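Fig. S4 source data, part A: sequence.
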Amino acid sequence: MTGGNVQILVSMIIYLLFTIGVSLWYSKRSARNTESYFLGGRGLGPWVAAMSAESSDMSGWLLMGLPGVAYFTGAGEAVWTAIGLAIGTWINWRIVAKRLRSYSQIAGNSITLPEFFSNRFHDKKRVLSSIAAVLLLVFFSIYVGAQFVTFGKLFSYVFGVEEYYAVMVVFGALFVLAYTIVGGFLAEAASDFIQGTLMFIALVSVLLIGTVHAGGPAAIAANLREIPGFLDFFGIAVPFDASGAAVSAAAGNVQAAVAGKPVFGPAMKYSILSIVSCLAWGLGYFGMPQVLLRFMAIEKTSKIAQSRLIAVVWCFISLFAAVSIGLIGRALMPTLLVDASQAETIFIHLAVDFFPPLLAGFILSGITAASISSSDSYMLIASSSLANDLVPALAGKPVSERTIMWIARATQVAVTCFGIWVALSGNTSIFRVVSYAWAGLGAAFGPLILYSLFWKRTNFQGAVAGMLTGGITVFLWKNVISGLGGAFGVYELLPAFILSAIVIPVVSLLTPAPSAEILGEFETAKTAEF
């Protein structure tokens, strides 16, 4: 390891120690009761709520996955995905946040998303919360694995030895586990504010310095126009290997270079179906527990408008910067990264090459920040779902808060182990791993959240049918149907979301209407202020 790498590592260790300090600071407050541990006592201010929601949502995917897509195949997929996410962020904050904040308190002071579903429909047997808890465990465990991939890629690069990838995956996993167990939601939300700020600074800094080194926007555009389809929003660049075949993860081949230039084949048209698939990422927001929980935890509904402005501005600028960094990276380092997995390290290379080592370390801590802020959220939500929702349902009786806390921590250990397995299983594309988990959560919970909040005729039977339809369709579409190709190659979130959105009203109308008490709570939630 070089002297520069040692300085980078020192900066990152300082950041990690700071994170531990935040966790210890909030540990006593988080341990008071389950509401404090899982929801922070509904005391988040507008800045913390906004930054916590966005940083835990975007994860290491924002600094590695999205720039990697832009670096490897150009603007098409990356830009449309970013547009979908930006629109989804604004709509979610605009129409869901306030209603969910009020309704979750009216519905039995729900502190988890599964608990809200059961309380909303007066599900005494907790069937809804049990199904939701299982889905959360499955898809969030996959999500956690994607964050551990980020740790592995980052730290193995810092040490300069790829063989350290597995070691650093385990190290990152154990660090996040310890941090989450001690601090709970308050530590997570407070540190997420700091981590979101660091992510923003890191993205903007690398964008600006990279642009200067590349000679400015005009020079970058002129350079990239030489690559067929690279800057075409309605096309996609196709990297070729030495034999003239398209590079793909399935083939295990790598991009060739001739005379210092990367080899690309003819550009492919980006179809309307592909664009719709990318835009469909925005639908996922309606079912993202890590974001929805921040809505539930905001101190007052009157603060939501301010939070929305902060969150949307952060999101728009960060997404623009992430895509631009990938494009700039291709202009500056055209032949350095030869497959989709390697391409996801472009942010790291730009930071290390263009910043002094100590400063580069703090910038790279933005990746660490993104991974921590996401993985701790996912672990906390998954564990709260099992401990607070599934176990009491299976036990058929109330469970003490002390028991719930211990079960939650044991679940975090189990999720960590599964996440490590995902990270070491061979699929090292952060973008692809995240896309699957995002689809599962978005389709299972998104339509149900919207119907629960805005259509009073939604009933228990419709809720169960919609949730199961969304989750099962994602699994089948990804693993079976998409293999048929053509129109069936659409991103699995879109058909799963649509099917769930159809099933919920159909089943609800074919079964008995909700009780007068449920309808009364719905009407109260429409105008309630807290």
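Fig. S4 source data, part B ends here. The beta strands are 235-236, 257-258, 261-262, 268-269.
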